[in-house]
Amino acid sequence: MWLSQLTDRNRQCFPDRVALVDEHRSVTWAQFHERTVRLARGLGALGIAPGDRVVVLSLDRVEVLETYFALARLGALFVPLNHSLTVPEVAEIVERVEPAALIGETALLERFADLPVSRRIALDEPAFAELGADEAEFELPEVADTDPVAILHTSATTGRAKGVVVDQRSFRAIALGWLAVSRPADDMVLVTCCPLYHGSMVVTLTYLAAGATAVLMPGFTPQRALAAVETHRATHIWLVPQMLRFMLQAKALDRAELGTLREVMYGAAPMPREVYAAAAERLGCGFRQVYGMTEVGGPFVTLGPEEHPAPDAVGEIIPAGRVVPGMSVRAIGADGREVEPEAIGEIVVRGPGVMHGYLHNPDATAEITTADGWIRTGDLGRIDRSGRIHLVDRTKDLILRAGQNVYPSEIERVLLQHPAVRDAAVVGMPDADYGEVPLAYVVAEAGTGRAELLRHLAERLAPYKRPARIEFIEQVPRNPAGKIVKKLLRA
């Protein structure tokens, strides 16, 4: 019962320390522990039983984590969903999950009123706060760490979202390995800009295990994030590089007092060199890269502040880092065998953090799992002789141009080095002569011409790597985690 043990320990060690804070309220570790026990009893009295699945639809707030921890104590599975999904998208997931209840904010419950879930609980109504007040005698079940605790859905950048079934052992393994290398101080205050409805929430759970204070926001804006750091004297912030770019562009940055900030944690997408350099100069703090995947438990590789290059000495890419204790990583070739150090292969992972499998999808589970039990990340990369992982691209994004490998991420990095380019994405398009060639989508300042960008690329890339075509668009489609949704560009 890792999540239950987490609150048990922290209410003993730090009873009066703030555990969670949002724009409406804050709770200490003692209050959070008491509330999750009481809520678990209240939900159990309503008929939610061990093994039941409960969909959670809400913006980030204290009640969301209270719900997760209460359901874990009850032995039920929490199923957080992206509240920005369309009604048909949520309906498809609900049909597959078959939830016993739907817990969420009133506005979202109304928006998804047609979902076939009879038991609905509004977490922003007074009745939710009273749940469990009269259930002191309700006996909570024994829950094993190997029992499923959550179904976390993938980002669906290449197709339909898949439900990843994880247990409490996964959360525990990732937390203990991560904390062993990150070694947070007792006074850590974390502003989490990443939502609590997908695998990135494991970062928040991990630092909560160490007794940190988590500052939750109902949605990211650069002004809101800057204000949260200043108001709560945050020591850490967890975001994606695109969010950091927006913060650096915000007028509020000039007025913000950010002297307490020690570490910017970033993940989900590569960190552009110019964003890293600007942030390092303006914020004056350390940086930690977070490389993870929902199917393997969340964050399993990190590059800490002491290993980050100086802003003026960044190579083509910043290494993702080293694997955390307890998890194992390899790079394998097309034959499934481990490649030599420095050779490019697909990154695969094994360890106690990996998922049980995809919900009701054994074929997809088999496809992502090697014959000897390693999970395929779908990322191409190399592992150097110091154990650092250097990511190159996604296997599905690789462009094979007349037999030569072309990595879209390399072209994107070069495009972003042009001062007029604000964002870029590269996909492969069919070609009668070469099989496939790169197509670049670019967000740029007005007046920027294709010829100008092609000259920029020609000075930095071999001919076979250069895009056959450049298209200007107003915005690169990205999901809430900051990842480019290339299926929309291919369509």
Automatic annotation (TrEMBL):
Residues 410-483 form the AMP-binding enzyme C-terminal domain. Residues 9-359 form the AMP-dependent synthetase/ligase domain. This is Class I adenylate-forming enzyme family protein. InterPro entries: AMP-bd_C, AMP-bd_C_sf, AMP-dep_synth/lig_dom, ANL_N_sf, ATP-dep_AMP-bd_enzyme. SUPFAM superfamilies: Acetyl-CoA synthetase-like. It comes from the Bacteria. It comes from Kitasatospora aburaviensis. The lineage of its organism: Bacteria, Bacillati, Actinomycetota, Actinomycetes, Kitasatosporales.
